[in-house]
Amino acid sequence: MEIRILGCYGGELPGYRVCSFAVDGKLLLDAGSVTSVLRLSEQRRISSILVTHTHLDHIKDIPFLVANLVAEGFHEPVNIISTGWVIEGIKFHLFNGALWPDFTVLPTAESPVLKFTSIEPGADFSVQDFTIRAIPVNHTVPAVGYIIRQGRSAILYTGDTGPTERIWEEANKLRGLKAVIVESSFPNRLRAMAESSGHMTPILLKRELKKLNRKDIPILLTHMKPQYLGLLRKEVRSIGQFQISFLRQGERYRF
Ligand SMILES: [Zn+2]
Ligand SMILES: [Zn+2]
Predict the structure, then answer these.
(1) Closest ligand to the CA of 19
(2) Which of 58, 79, 103, 253 is the most buried (most CB within 10 A)?
(3) How far is the CA of 69 from the centre of ligand 2 (A)?
(4) Are 140 and 197 in contact (CB under 8 A)?
């Protein structure tokens, strides 16, 4: 599978976009930065979006995406997939007729541009040619990471999380794991803020990676606060042992 990095930062500054990854051009992992990156013809190809949690930096372009598509004709509704809590939160707080129109009944209730699918954490779910599984992680709101499998390849994306257990246990059981995308938001000196907001620092990340049995696969970092990028680069270097690199915005990775 090909993963194109539309945005990979934990904050927005000129040149630094919040998180969204396009898998094979048709499945999005989170939707922080979509409509400012993809051309309209590319936006038309998006048929499903896996959302990790309700925070705005992970969902903020869903409203603009569906508004583009509804105006211009579409074949299938865009399917927002996540756990029940996340789906209910997006419906209630965002597509509520106040912040944005309820696109699950637009342009018509029979043929809407947007639909929602709730999935059970821990259970496999098929979407297009992918098998996905949501795994609960540890954030300030109910949040999940995802395992995405296609054929014999699998990747793991933690989404936003502080120290956590289950996703690493799942990773250790997985066959065909090709890469782990894990967050690293704050530098070590902001550890208190990281802990209270459910995020990682390089020291916390080092401890997390000890839970992963695989030392031979790429560990790709995401959700860095852009203003601390220089410091994060320095601090991550001291983790050693793993093949760690920072995701690069605009880059395409193949697994
Ligand atoms: Zn968050
Ligand atoms: Zn976030």
Answers:
(1) 2
(2) 58
(3) 25
(4) yes
Ligand located closest to 60 CA: 2
Residue 55 alpha carbon to ligand 1 centre in Å: 5
Cα-to-chain-centroid distance, residue 250: 15
Whole-number pLDDT of residue 73: 75
Q: Which DSSP state fits 37?
A: T
Judge whether 118 and 87 are in contact, CB under 8 Å.
Answer: yes
Cis peptide before 107 (omega within 30 of 0): yes
**Mean pLDDT, contiguous 10-residue spans, the chain (255 residues):** 98 98 98 98 97 98 97 87 98 98 96 97 97 98 98 97 98 96 98 98 97 95 98 93 94 97
| 194/205 Cα distance (integer angstroms) | 11
| Closest to 251 (Cα-Cα) out of 6, 40, 46 | 6
Q: How far, in Å, is the centroid of ligand 2 from the Cα of 238?
A: 24
220, β-bridge pairs: 181, 245
- DSSP 3-state of 214: coil
Q: How many CB atoms lie within 10 A of CB 217?
A: 17
Residue pair 46/22 in contact (Cβ under 8 Å)? The answer is: yes
31, 59 Cβ separation under 8 angstroms: yes
Beta strands 27-29; 48-50: pairing state? parallel
Q: Environment class of residue 192 by beta-carbon count within 10 Å: exposed (0-12), middle (13-18) or buried (19+)?
A: exposed
Which CATH number applies to 2-254: 1.20.1050.90, 3.30.390.50, 3.40.50.720, 3.60.15.10?
3.60.15.10
- pLDDT score, position 74: 73
